[in-house]
Specification:
It contains nine helices and ten strands. It is an alpha/beta fold. The strands form two sheets. Strands 3-2-1-4-5-10-7 form a seven-stranded mixed beta sheet, sandwiched between helices. A three-stranded antiparallel beta sheet has the order 6-9-8, covered by helices on one side. Strand 4, helix 5 and strand 5 form a beta-alpha-beta unit. Helix 5 crosses helix 7. It is globular, with a radius of gyration of 18 Å. The two termini are 32 Å apart. It binds S-adenosylmethionine (SAM). S-adenosylmethionine binds next to helix 1 and strand 2.
Length: 256
């Protein structure tokens, strides 16, 4: 899935939401940042984590964001204005233009599951980290990511199509083996599960629903059915019977 145009905007709304902020704070806590460190954010999106990292490492450090989307990087540039330690780079996580051992630590929030050859990206992740450096990675258990839409048939169809938005549905359960093969040890996992039972302006589900609805059009769902699904969710919200669940998993590992 490309994160350009409206998808880029909605993705940033998700990053800024209460739940997006909570998962970013979990990553920052796991990174245990020290002043002057060099830290990479893979798939940095709109730069929210890069900005937080820059504020922590200070002017003597490096807060580097890498993303494949020019639209996301434009937004990240604007978000990180005035922070000298920030470097934003367009590129692929599978083939990075950094020297071996460039970073003290590395983070990535909901990016690895979009890469077909995820092992190549993990090998690159290990290569650019110093030995002893920590990787802090969040991926989602997509089989359990679900809106509770009032019309079960339409709701099931929307979720079935959404499965096509990324190639790895259950990556967290594969991470221990994959990280071991890539040269990491000491894997620890922590669930960051949450529910939304309203779609207020700063709820993760409000913006995630727009992503799903737009993604589905032309893939077995027409514009009218996509709009109908959104209307049904809004009605459920107004009647206090809305529900959404997500299970992101935070994985930490050490480069050996
Ligand atoms: C769901 S967004 C998450 C953005 C950000 N980490 C956040 O939490 O707000 C996924 C991001 O990964 C980027 N991305 C996808 N595939 C990539 C790749 N192969 N290399 C680098 N970035 C990639 C997308 O452009 C997008 O910005």
């Amino acid at each position: 899935m490309d994160f350009d145009g409206d998808f880029s905007l909605w993705q940033r709304k998700i990053a800024e939401s209460l739940e997006g902020t909570a998962r970013r704070l979990a990553v920052l806590e796991a990174l245990s940042i020290k002043t002057g460190q060099a830290i990479l954010d893979l798939g940095c999106g709109g730069g929210h984590l890069v900005r937080d990292i820059a504020l922590a490492v200070g002017d003597s450090g490096r807060a580097v964001g890498l993303d494949a989307s020019a639209d996301q990087l434009d937004a990240a540039n604007a978000h990180c204005t005035g922070l000298d330690s920030v470097e934003l780079i367009e590129g692929s996580a599978s083939d990075m233009a950094f020297e071996d051992g460039s970073f003290d630590a590395l983070a990535s929030i909901q990016m690895l599951e979009y890469i077909v050859d995820v092992d190549a990206a993990l090998a690159e992740t290990r290569r650019v980290l110093k030995t002893g450096g920590k990787a802090v990675l969040i991926s989602v258990l997509w089989d359990h990511w679900r809106f509770h839409g009032p019309d079960p048939d339409l709701n099931d169809r929307m979720h079935e199509i959404w499965r096509g938005h990324c190639p790895h549905q259950m990556l967290p359960f594969e991470m221990t083996a994959r990280l071991g093969a890539a040269g990491f040890d000491g894997v620890v996992q922590k669930p960051l599960a949450f529910i939304n039972n309203t779609m207020h302006e700063n709820a993760f589900a409000r913006w995630a629903a727009r992503l799903v609805a737009a993604f589905a059009i032309g893939k077995g769902i027409d514009k009218d059915d996509s709009a109908l699904w959104l209307d049904q969710l809004a009605m459920a919200d107004s009647e206090n019977r809305f529900g959404f669940v997500s299970v992101p998993v935070l994985t930490t590992a050490v480069a050996v």
